[in-house]
Design brief:
Blueprint: E1 4-6, E2 11-13, E3 21-22, H1 31-45, E4 53-55, E5 58-63, E6 66-72, E7 77-80, E8 84-85, E9 88-93, E10 110-114, E11 121-122, E12 135-138, E13 144-145, E14 158-161, E15 168-171, E16 174-177, E17 182-185, E18 192-195, E19 202-203, E20 214-218, E21 225-226, E22 239-241, E23 248-249, E24 264-266, E25 273-274, E26 287-289, E27 296-297, E28 310-313, E29 319-320, E30 334-337, E31 343-344, E32 355-358, E33 371-372, E34 375-379
């Protein structure tokens, strides 16, 4: 067995049990305490993971002769992660290792982070809530970054990715996959208008989430897939046109939730299901054109859309699920169904004061004037 040193507790374990002692800061030994601590430390020595240590403010652990950064106690500013510590290579950053250095007056506010060549992975939410961070420098070796490693960093202006990175690239500070098929992360500190390059097919989960500055996003026709919460909380966003070829909104939803300045949305005909919370809390949304092929709406799809006055449900629509679809839409006066009465599961789909309109030849509806789901019905007369 090789000697195991623990800097924090000033313990030393010799390969010879009779020599093991515990020392205090004066260097004096306590032979009696060694009888207790020796078996404990010998047991720890059987495992490959050492207790957490600290180097220049970086808290770390060693496992299988490699180092994972697990925390930070340094002064902040422009931080550069070490490439090695005590001859062990730094290969990863652990989950939430640098999370939360964002508060004004915080003595460890981080303004940028540079990863060394040799690091290969960054864990979930590792740098979340670092609002003072403006720049991220990613080397060629860093190819595994768990979403959302840089979530809710509202000051980031640029992702700088080494040109030899085999998985990722940056174009004008925006983070894409190497093949330019997926937009992974738009810097949250950027404002104004942005045009996604032609050829991009996917907008990753949370790609624009909580960007408080972006006002207009232009999406090319090549995009067919939008991940969950992709535009959530983009409060200044006023202009967003979805491409005609879009055929997938990820079921986990919340794609446009909290986009409080969106006023009009046209959803392409390729979308057959509107996921949960898709447009929830879009308080200025006045008009929504639903796709002709829409078959289902999930929970709270338009909840608290307080500016919505009327909406047309297409002929092929089949079901509401999960409840609260239009709950909180306090100014909604009429919903026009162009097809047969849909199935309904859950409750509180429709606010007080709304009238359900339907066509004369549609099936499954009550007689005009009778209630459907607790709301009055009427025949639509164009």
């Amino acid at each position: 067995m090789t000697p195991l040193r623990c800097q924090a507790s000033l313990l030393y374990i010799s390969p010879y049990p009779e020599e093991n002692i515990m020392r205090n800061n004066t260097g004096l030994g306590y032979a009696t305490q060694a009888l207790f601590y020796t078996p404990l430390m010998l047991l720890l020595g059987l495992f490959p993971t050492l207790l957490a240590n600290e180097y220049n403010g970086f808290v770390y652990e060693i496992e299988n002769n490699t180092i994972t950064i697990t925390g930070y106690k340094g002064p902040g500013g422009a931080i550069v992660l070490p490439s090695e510590i005590d001859s062990f290579p730094v290969t990863s950053v652990g989950r939430r290792a640098f999370m939360g250095h964002s508060q004004r007056g915080h003595d460890r506010m981080i303004t940028s982070v540079t990863f060394p060549e040799g690091i290969t992975s960054v864990g979930r939410e590792a740098f979340r809530d670092n609002h003072s961070m403006t720049d991220v420098y990613i080397p060629a070796s860093l190819t595994s970054i768990t979403r959302p490693a840089f979530g809710r960093n509202r000051g980031i202006m640029n992702f700088h990715i080494h040109e030899d990175n085999p998985e990722f690239r940056s174009i004008d500070g925006v983070w894409f996959t190497r093949d330019m098929k997926e937009l992974r992360h738009f810097p949250q500190g950027r404002g104004g208008s942005y045009t996604i390059p032609d050829g991009v097919e996917r907008i990753r989960d949370e790609a624009f989430r909580f960007n408080d500055n972006i006002e207009a996003i232009h999406i090319p026709d090549s995009v067919t897939w939008i991940g969950k919460q992709a535009f959530r909380g983009c409060e200044k966003l006023t202009e967003l046109v979805l491409p005609e070829n879009l055929d997938s909104l990820v079921r986990a939803g919340r794609h446009f939730m909290g986009c409080t300045n969106l006023q009009r949305m046209v959803i392409p005909d390729g979308i057959t299901q509107l996921p949960q919370h898709s447009f929830r809390d879009c308080t200025n949304l006045e008009e929504v054109i639903l796709p002709r092929n829409l078959e289902r709406m999930s929970q709270s799809a338009f909840r608290n859309c307080t500016s919505l006055v009327q909406i047309i449900i297409p002929e092929n629509f089949k079901a509401f699920s999960g409840g609260n679809t239009f709950d909180g839409c306090e100014n909604l006066q009429g919903i026009l169904f162009l097809g047969d009465a849909p199935k309904v599961s859950g409750s509180d789909h429709f606010p007080d004061g709304v009238t359900i309109f339907r066509t004369a030849d549609a099936a499954g509806w009550p007689e005009p004037g009778e209630l459907w789901m607790g709301r009055p019905t009427a025949i639509f007369e164009p």
